[in-house]
Design a protein that fits this description.
Layout (H helix, E strand, L loop, with lengths): L2 H7 L14 H6 L1 H12 L22 E3 L23 H18 L14 H30 L22 H15 L25 H16 L9 H20 L8 H4 L10 E8 L7 H5 L12 E3 L1 H6 L27 H6 E3 L39 E3 L20 E8 H16 L5 E2 L2 E2 H12 L10 H15 L6 H7 L9 H4 L2 E9 L5 E9 L13 H6 L10
Antiparallel strand pairs: 1-3, 2-6, 4-5, 7-8, 9-10
C-alpha cells in the first residue's frame, strides 16, 4: 500500500468496528466508537503463523527450518527471487497503516468527556480506559517503527497525521535516530500507561484487557529497541555505550517483573505451547483463534501422511537439531566427550529439543491413533515411512514441527474442539530479555563474569539454561567461543518465535562467524533410511541457498520509489 493511500485510510468515511473506521461525527458521539478506534491500532501487530507466506514461517527463511514446498512464497528469501518488484513482505504497508491510524487517533480524539455516560455507574472506569488508550496507542506506534527499522533500516518517521499533499515527499530518517526516538517515546509513556491491566479486576476491565499494552510492554519495547541500536547492523561505529544502555534496559524489565512475581516460567513446556499466553513469563502476546477453515499452525505444520491432518510446511532443519546440546554434559553432539551416540541421535538431548522438534518414532500428533484405533500414531519420517519421502509434501529434513502446536487437535471428519482452540503468538517474554541482557552485558564488558547493574552475562544466560534443565556455561569460557555458545543458546531457546531471521541480520560482520552471511548460504537436513533389522541409518545432506549482502535489509517496493523520489532504495536492490 502506498503511503498516500495509508494517509487517506484513516480519514475516509468507513465503519468504525473492531477492525475498521467510521465517520468522525459518529465516533465523537460514542465511547464505543472511540475505544474501537484505539482497538483498531492493535490489529497491525505482527505474528508469524504462516499467514503472510502461504503457510511458510520466517523460520524457513533461516537455518532453523526448510519449507517443504518449493513453490511457497517464503522460498523467495532463499532462492534469489526476492527483489524490489517481489518484496515478499507486506510489513511496510502494514506498519505504516498502524502508525497512521495511531496518529489519527492521537490528533483527533483527545479531550473527550462522553457526557452521555456521566450518570452510568462505570463512568470513571470508562474514562480511565479512554485516557490510558492514548499511551497504549503511542507505544504501539513505537512498536511499528521498530518493526520497520529491523526490516528496512532508515525509514520515514512522523508522529502527526500526514495528509495526501505531503506524504509523497517524506524522506528516510537514519535507523539509529528512529531507534533513539522509539526509546524516547517509551520513556515518555512508561509512567503514565497502566501498570498491569490484569491487576484491575475490581474496576470491571475484564479478561480481554490482559492482552493490552501496559508498563511491561513499554519496558520490553525499549529494551528490544536498545539491543537493535547496539547491534552491528545499525551500530556501525561500534559504540560500546549502546551495549551498556541495552543491558540496563533489559535489567530494568527483569527487575520490575521480579518485583511483581513475574519470573521465568519453571516449565519451558508452558512457553513452547500453543497457548503460551497462560505462562506468567509472557509479557505480551497476540491472541489468535483457530478454525478448521482458516490457516492455523496445526493445519500448516502437522505431518503429512496422516488422515485429515496437515501440510508439514515448516520442517526443523538438521542444523537446528545439531544446536541442541547433550543434557548431561552441556556439549554439542560434535564436541569431544559430549556423550552423543550416532546410532541413537535423539537420546539424551537438551529437553527443549523434545518440545520443539518431532522426529522419527515420536508419538505425534498426540491426538491421532493408527488405523485400528488401538495404538497411538507413531511418526515415520524415514524414506518409505508414513510421513516420509516420497509422500507428497513429506518433510525434506527428516523432522516436523512441535513447538507452538496443539498436538491434541484432530482434523479428521467429525472431530471436535478445532474451531474453539485458542493460540497466542508471543511478542515479548522474559526469556528473550535474559538473553538480551547477557548479549549486551558481554559486549559492553568483554567479560561474561563482570556485572552490569548487578548481574553478569553468565548469570543471565544460566538462568535460562537452568529452567531448561541444562548445565551452566563454563565459567572460563570467553571471546568468540562464549559468543558462539550464547548464539547457539539463543537459537535453541527462541526457536520458531520469529527471532532468528532478524538476529542473523543484526549480527552483521560477527567475528564468531554467526551472522546471515555465514549462516544463510546453506542448511543441513537428514535423510533417514530403515535397515532390514529395524535400525535406522542417518545420512546428512547440505542444501545450498542464495545469499547476497543486500539481504541484510528488505528492499523498498519499486512502486513506492516511483511515487516518492525521496525514498532512496536500500543498497544493492
Amino acid at each position: 500500500m502506498a503511503l498516500a493511500a495509508i494517509a487517506a485510510a484513516c480519514e475516509e468515511d468507513m465503519d468504525y468496528g473492531e477492525y475498521v473506521l467510521n465517520t468522525r461525527d459518529y465516533v465523537d458521539q460514542t465511547f464505543d466508537g472511540v475505544t474501537n478506534l484505539a482497538n483498531n491500532v492493535y490489529n497491525y501487530l505482527d505474528y508469524d503463523y504462516g499467514q503472510m507466506y502461504g503457510g511458510g514461517m520466517l523460520a524457513s527463511a533461516t537455518d532453523e527450518a526448510v519449507c517443504a514446498y518449493q513453490s511457497n512464497t517464503v522460498q523467495g528469501f532463499t532462492n534469489g527471487s526476492w527483489s524490489a518488484t517481489n518484496t515478499l513482505s507486506s510489513r511496510w504497508s502494514n506498519d505504516y497503516t498502524g502508525i497512521q491510524c495511531a496518529n489519527y487517533y492521537i490528533d483527533n480524539f483527545g479531550g473527550m468527556t462522553f457526557d452521555e455516560l456521566k450518570l452510568n455507574s462505570d463512568y470513571n472506569v470508562c474514562m480511565r480506559r479512554y485516557l490510558y488508550s492514548f499511551q497504549e496507542v503511542r507505544a504501539l506506534r513505537a512498536y511499528y517503527y521498530l518493526d520497520l527499522v529491523r526490516n528496512f533500516g532508515d525509514v520515514p518517521y512522523f508522529t502527526r497525521t500526514v495528509d495526501n499533499s505531503s506524504v509523497n515527499s517524506l524522506t528516510r530518517m537514519p535507523a539509529l535516530a528512529v531507534l533513539d526516538s522509539i526509546m524516547a517515546e517509551c520513556d515518555a509513556v512508561v509512567d503514565t500507561v497502566v501498570e498491569d491491566y490484569s491487576a484491575l479486576p475490581d474496576e470491571g476491565w475484564g479478561d480481554k484487557y490482559t492482552l493490552r499494552v501496559d508498563r511491561y510492554f513499554v519496558l520490553a519495547l525499549k529494551a528490544r529497541a536498545a539491543l537493535y541500536a547496539a547491534s552491528p547492523l545499525f551500530n556501525t561505529t561500534g559504540d560500546r555505550e549502546r551495549w551498556r544502555k541495552a543491558a540496563v534496559a533489559s535489567k530494568q524489565l527483569i527487575d520490575e517483573c521480579a518485583a511483581k512475581g513475574r519470573t521465568l516460567d519453571a516449565k519451558y513446556s508452558n512457553v513452547a505451547s500453543a497457548f503460551a499466553l497462560e505462562s506468567k513469563e509472557v509479557i505480551f502476546s497476540r491472541l489468535v483463534y483457530s478454525s478448521l477453515t482458516t490457516a492455523i499452525k496445526e493445519n500448516y505444520n502437522y505431518p503429512v501422511g496422516i488422515n485429515g491432518a496437515g501440510q508439514g510446511i515448516n520442517c526443523p532443519s538438521q542444523t537446528l537439531v545439531d544446536a541442541y546440546e547433550m543434557a548431561v554434559t552441556g556439549l554439542l553432539p560434535s564436541e569431544a566427550g559430549s556423550g552423543y551416540d550416532a546410532a541413537n541421535p535423539y537420546d539424551g538431548r537438551d529437553p527443549r529439543f523434545y518440545l520443539t522438534v518431532a522426529c522419527n518414532g515420536d508419538i505425534w500428533p498426540t491426538a491421532y491413533q493408527d488405523t485400528t484405533g488401538s495404538a497411538p500414531y507413531q511418526l515415520q519420517t524415514y524414506i518409505g515411512g508414513n510421513s516420509g519421502q516420497p509422500v507428497t509434501g513429506a518433510t525434506p529434513t527428516g523432522y516436523y514441527l512441535k513447538k507452538g502446536l496443539d498436538g491434541t487437535l484432530d482434523f479428521r471428519t467429525g472431530s471436535t474442539g478445532v474451531a474453539s482452540s485458542k493460540h497466542s503468538w508471543t511478542t515479548f517474554r522474559l526469556g528473550e530479555f535474559y538473553l538480551n541482557f547477557a548479549e549486551a552485558a558481554y559486549n559492553y564488558t568483554g567479560d561474561p563474569n563482570a556485572a552490569v547493574d548487578g548481574m553478569t552475562a553468565n548469570q543471565a544466560v544460566n538462568a535460562v539454561r537452568a529452567r531448561a534443565g541444562m548445565p551452566d556455561f563454563p565459567a572460563t569460557l570467553a571471546g568468540d567461543d562464549w559468543m558462539r555458545k550464547y548464539k547457539n543458546e539463543r537459537m535453541v531457546e527462541l526457536a520458531f518465535e520469529g527471532h532468528r531471521f532478524y538476529d542473523l541480520r543484526r549480527w552483521r560482520g560477527a567475528s564468531d562467524g554467526v551472522d546471515a552471511a555465514h549462516r544463510m548460504t546453506s542448511v543441513d537436513v537428514m535423510e533417514i533410511t530403515k535397515n532390514a533389522d529395524g535400525t535406522f541409518a542417518y545420512n546428512r545432506k547440505t542444501l545450498t541457498r542464495t545469499w547476497n549482502d543486500r539481504m541484510y535489509l528488505f528492499p523498498i517496493a519499486q512502486s513506492e520509489l516511483v511515487k516518492n523520489s525521496n525514498l532512496v532504495q536500500n543498497p544493492g536492490w
